[in-house]
Amino acid sequence: MASQRVAAFIGSGLLIVGAVLVGEVLHVTVVRGETPITDLSVLLRAALGLGLVLVGARLDAHPREYLSVPSDRAGEESGEEGGFDGELSPLDDDAFDSIEAREHGAKGERDRR
């Protein structure tokens, strides 16, 4: 788990550095026109930037792969997927009760009409 986090951190860093290199190459060649795009140093920086982006994208992982969430554990234990998980909600039990009472009250008013 820790190795996946480290790999994702390094991958994110490589993505950023690679994107900055590619952006700098485009800025120097296209925007400012200081050097031709066929210059060897420009081509090497562009290749290095693209390589870093590719390696970074390969190493970068979605947080779901290395973080555990209480709802993930509950779904694995009970065998059900998705649904509402009260542990992740910012509302407490009293707030849920008042929301349910309002919803049922509004439903009853609609039924009467």
| Integer average pLDDT | 80
Return Rg in Å: 26 Å
**Class per helix and strand makeup:** mainly alpha
Name the overall outline. Answer: elongated
DSSP strand count:
0
Measured by DSSP, the beta-strand proportion falls in under 5%
Largest sheet entry: none
**CA-CA gap between termini:** 57 Å
Which blocks of ≥5 consecutive residues have pLDDT under 50?
none
Tally of DSSP helical segments: 4
> What is the string of SSEs from the N terminus onward?
HHHH
Percent range for helical residues?
A: 55-70%
Walk me through what this model shows.
The chain is an all-alpha fold and 113 residues long. The protein has helices at residues 2-31, 40-59, 70-78, 93-112. The radius of gyration is 26 Å and the shape is elongated. The termini are far apart. The mean pLDDT is 80.
Give a quick precis of the structure:
With 113 residues, the protein is mainly α. It is 70% helix and 0% strand. Helix 1 runs antiparallel to helix 2.
In terms of topology, how is this protein built?
Elements: H1 2-31, H2 40-59, H3 70-78, H4 93-112
Features:
113 residues; mainly alpha; 4 helices
